[in-house]
């Protein structure tokens, strides 16, 4: 007898997960439309959604609106369903070298409250977990919530902080990079931890207006002396970017250009990182030759960013023009390569510190070399850094709610009432 195949429980979980994903991505949808989108029978959708409504995971939010001059429809009006945003709640945390931000959201990513705490660059994992634990207690108290109403906490750790917290290479083969089980015991909640760059890409997708069409999006993130990237393919994060995001450093933007150990000639690492830019500008960098740049960098030319270079040129350091134009061309080459390789509809820039004027300069160069269509795809992140914790919340919702179809969460009728 062949016992292989999918179980009834697995099938139920998958169907519920698909329904939740449809609602998460599209907003309120009728049972009939869910049936058509998922190729499930109407009877099956009715049975599944009835159970989820009884558990208060889903709610009916009204009738499908009909245009006054639209086609007259016969039969019963469509009743729209949506995720109940207050069925459960999610904590999120974002950890970088200077601060820890913690917040709580609904299942539809509405921010209820947040906190931010400064930390030392060499803060230990234990110190950071203590901060998060205290923040959870404060936020639960202020929101009048019990822990049972929270699906868990998503923790986003920047690549640099992964090193500082001793997470790189510390896991045994076959284990994950993050010690989620240890952190769960410390925090008293389910923990879902991940690379902050990858999770910011997912959060960016969650923040898009619901009902919008699926997109390919590349997130480019600057940290310390590296570039990181993550790719959303039709609104799903490509699996290889969940852990390793430092691929952008290896992309060639200047064939035959400068060398850097471990990288090809003309790589991003050798041409566009802060240390590479600092080495290029060293010959002309001084208080007299580049006064604006000297002031912006406070006399430290070892970590000059592209943003500082563009701003200094605008403020009168015309001697920087040849270098600035060369770097802009290389940066635009990087963006164009990402757009072409991943068929990107959007390239979102995080942590570069660009002003609106800097963005205009980059788009102008992009249009000159690669056309207006390519220039129009460059966006900068409009999420306040104090809201970066939401990328952790999005991850917790994905793993603790959507992926299980809500089956892991048993509804407590007395509590909800």
Strands, count: 13
CATH-scheme architecture of the largest domain:
2-Layer Sandwich
CATH class of the largest domain: Alpha Beta
CATH homologous superfamily designation of the largest domain? ATPase, nucleotide binding domain
Produce the secondary structure layout.
Layout: H1 8-26, E1 29-30, H2 31-38, H3 42-54, E2 58-63, E3 79-83, E4 89-95, E5 99-106, E6 111-118, H4 125-143, E7 150-157, H5 159-164, H6 180-187, E8 191-195, H7 196-207, E9 217-223, E10 226-233, E11 236-237, H8 268-271, H9 274-281, H10 291-296, H11 306-314, H12 321-341, E12 346-350, H13 356-370, H14 372-375, E13 378-380, H15 390-402, H16 413-416
Parallel strand pairs: 4-7, 7-8, 9-12, 12-13
Antiparallel strand pairs: 1-3, 2-3, 4-5, 5-6, 9-10, 10-11
Helix pairs in contact: 2-3, 7-15, 11-12, 12-13
Could you describe the 3D structure shown?
By secondary structure, this protein is α/β, with parallel strands linked by helices. The protein folds into three domains: 9-65 and 77-83, Arc Repressor Mutant, subunit A, CATH 1.10.10.10; 89-205 and 386-416, ATPase, nucleotide binding domain (Nucleotidyltransferase, domain 5, 2-Layer Sandwich), CATH 3.30.420.40; 212-383, 2-Layer Sandwich (Nucleotidyltransferase, domain 5). 41% of the residues lie in helices and 18% in strands. The protein has 16 helices and 13 strands. The protein has helices spanning 8-26, 31-38, 42-54, 125-143, 159-164, 180-187, 196-207, 268-271, 274-281, 291-296, 306-314, 321-341, 356-370, 372-375, 390-402, 413-416; strands spanning 29-30, 58-63, 79-83, 89-95, 99-106, 111-118, 150-157, 191-195, 217-223, 226-233, 236-237, 346-350, 378-380. Strand 5 and strand 6 form a beta hairpin. The protein is globular, with a radius of gyration of 24 Å. The relative contact order is 0.13.
């Amino acid at each position: 007898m062949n016992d292989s195949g999918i179980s009834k429980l697995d099938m139920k979980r998958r169907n519920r997960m698909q329904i939740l994903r449809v609602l998460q991505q599209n907003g309120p949808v009728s049972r009939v439309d869910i049936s058509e989108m998922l190729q499930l029978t109407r009877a099956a959708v009715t049975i599944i959604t009835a159970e989820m409504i009884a558990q208060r995971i889903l709610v009916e939010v009204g009738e499908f609106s009909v245009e006054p001059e639209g086609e007259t429809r016969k039969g019963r009006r469509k009743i729209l369903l949506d995720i109940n945003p207050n069925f459960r709640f999610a904590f999120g945390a974002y950890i970088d070298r200077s601060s820890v931000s913690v917040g709580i959201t609904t299942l539809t990513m509405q921010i209820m409250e947040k906190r931010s705490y400064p930390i030392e660059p060499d803060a230990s994992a234990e110190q950071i977990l203590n901060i998060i634990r205290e923040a959870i207690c404060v936020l639960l108290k202020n929101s009048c919530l019990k822990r049972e109403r929270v699906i868990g906490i998503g923790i986003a750790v920047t690549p640099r902080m992964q090193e500082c917290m001793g997470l790189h290479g510390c896991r045994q083969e076959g284990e994950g990079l993050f010690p989620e089980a240890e952190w769960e015991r410390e925090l008293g909640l389910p923990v879902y931890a991940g690379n902050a760059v990858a999770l910011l890409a997912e959060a960016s997708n969650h923040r898009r207006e619901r009902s919008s069409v699926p997109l390919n999006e590349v997130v480019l993130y600057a940290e310390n002396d590296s570039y990181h990237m993550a790719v959303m393919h039709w609104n799903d994060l490509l699996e290889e970017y969940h852990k390793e995001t430092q691929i952008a450093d290896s992309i060639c933007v200047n064939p035959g250009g400068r060398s850097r150990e471990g990288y090809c000639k003309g790589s991003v690492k050798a041409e566009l990182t802060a240390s590479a830019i600092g080495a290029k500008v060293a010959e002309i960098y001084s208080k007299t030759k580049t006064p604006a740049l000297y002031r912006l960098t406070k006399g430290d030319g070892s970590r000059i960013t592209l943003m500082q270079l563009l701003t200094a040129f605008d403020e009168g350091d015309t001697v920087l023009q040849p270098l600035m134009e060369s770097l802009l061309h290389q940066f635009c080459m990087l963006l164009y390569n990402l757009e072409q390789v991943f068929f990107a509809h959007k390239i979102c820039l995080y942590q570069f510190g660009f002003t609106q004027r800097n963005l205009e300069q980059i788009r102008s160069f992009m249009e000159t070399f690669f056309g207006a269509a390519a220039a129009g795809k460059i966006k900068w992140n409009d999420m306040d850094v104090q809201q970066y914790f939401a990328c952790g919340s999005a991850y917790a919702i994905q793993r603790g709610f959507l992926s299980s179809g809500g089956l892991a969460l048993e509804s407590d009728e007395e509590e909800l009432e």
